[in-house]
UniProtKB/TrEMBL annotation:
This is NAD(P)-dependent oxidoreductase. Residues 7-195 form the NAD(P)-binding domain. Signal peptide: none annotated. Gene3D superfamilies: NAD(P)-binding Rossmann-like Domain (3.40.50.720). It holds the Pfam family NAD_binding_10. It comes from the Bacteria.
């Protein structure tokens, strides 16, 4: 497939680009500067994720969009700003499938989180206020988009080699509270290859 990637130069995004290329996909990635970009096997489009023209350029002609986009320090509106622009760009380009990374701290209808995770979510929502709210508003935008979206609610991200062991559920808490970036990247790539969790925000963790 031809995959548009946002957040491609971040710690998880770089691994995601490498994983997609390894699987034989064509990758078109958005980057603020080509100098900071990654593998030459990918096509790099210079631009900002809040720029509708840049989003249209990276999405055009694609089969799916995947995002590992993360804010710079102090940016508390990135996801709520980008989501409606990306929805519009995807509709214009006729691209329906979107997979993105959200946070385990947000709650969605139908959740049956464990007592531990309910406490963690409450703490994150209290201490991380605007950042958690940003991700919650992003989820509301995708839920109303009418597109084939999935937002993966990831816990604490850690470095390390891929293990191939990931626990995931649309409604129930995994047993662990962390996942390697490599395993998360592989899980995001898996979701592009199959229609799992369309219209849902699964919770994931290492197993």
């Amino acid at each position: 497939m031809r995959i548009a990637v946002l957040g491609a130069t971040g710690a998880t995004g770089r691994l995601l680009v490498e994983e997609l290329l390894r699987r034989g996909h064509t990758v078109v990635a958005l980057t603020r500067t080509r100098r900071a970009a990654g593998p030459d096997a990918a096509t790099w489009v210079a631009g900002d994720a809040r720029d509708p023209d840049a989003l249209s350029a990276v999405v055009s002609g694609g089969d799916a969009v995947v995002s590992a986009l993360g804010p710079h320090r102090g940016d508390h509106t990135l996801h709520r700003d980008v989501a409606p622009l990306l929805v519009a760009a995807m509709r214009k380009a006729g691209v329906r499938r979107f997979v993105g990374v959200s946070g385990a701290g947000i709650d969605v209808p139908g959740d049956h989180k464990s007592r531990r995770d309910r406490a963690i979510s409450a703490l994150l929502q209290r201490l991380g206020g605007r950042t958690v709210e940003d991700k919650a508003l992003e989820q509301e935008t995708w839920a109303a988009s009418g597109l084939d979206w999935t937002l993966v609610r990831a816990p604490r991200l850690v470095d390390g080699p891929p293990t191939g062991r990931v626990e995931h559920s649309a409604t129930h808490s995994p047993r662990r509270t962390s996942i390697t970036r490599a395993d998360l990247a592989a899980f995001l790539a898996d979701l592009l290859d199959r229609p799992d969790y369309v219209g849902q925000a699964p919770l994931v963790a290492g197993r």
